[in-house]
Amino acid sequence: MAKYIFVYHGGKMPETQEEGERVMAQWTAWLGGMGDAVADDGNPVGPSSTVNSDGSVTGDGGANPASGYSLINADSMEQALEMAKGCPVLEAGGSVEVAQTIDM
Q1: Cα–Cα–Cα angle for 60, 23, 33, nearest 5°?
Q2: How far is Cα 1 from Cα 77, in angstroms, rounded to an integer?
Q3: CB of 77 closer than 8 Å to CB of 4
Q4: What domains appear along the chain, each with residue ranges and CATH number?
Q5: 82-86 — which CB contacts under 8 Å span 24+ positions?
Q6: Each residue's pLDDT tens digit, 2-54
Q7: How far is Cα 103 from Cα 29, in angstroms, rounded to an integer?
Q8: Do residues 68 and 44 lie in contact, with contact meaning Cβ atoms separated by under 8 Å?
Q9: Among 46, 53, 56, 83, which has the highest number of CB atoms less than 10 A from its own CB?
């Protein structure tokens, strides 16, 4: 079984406490529904910076900054993609980047 990183992009922060509780419940249900496939629930991330090949730093996080991540076990890329389709960030207008990790 391989590991896949789910990198979340976009979405929006909840505007009320009630909305925050609803969104958190959605994330908890989605991650919980995958059971042992979840290797690391991950976390949201704050503002990011990018170190470029010339050593310069851009403070805007690039064209599509990450908003969070999780690490998931799956038998194939296809299975990982199916799992990602249930991610709550999609309902908030975000996206999920899925990539297989490579053991070194």
Answers
A1: 110
A2: 11
A3: yes
A4: 2-44+66-100 (3.30.70.1060)
A5: 83/34, 83/37, 84/6, 86/30, 86/33
A6: 999 999 998 888 889 999 999 999 999 999 999 999 999 999 998 888 888 99
A7: 29
A8: yes
A9: 83
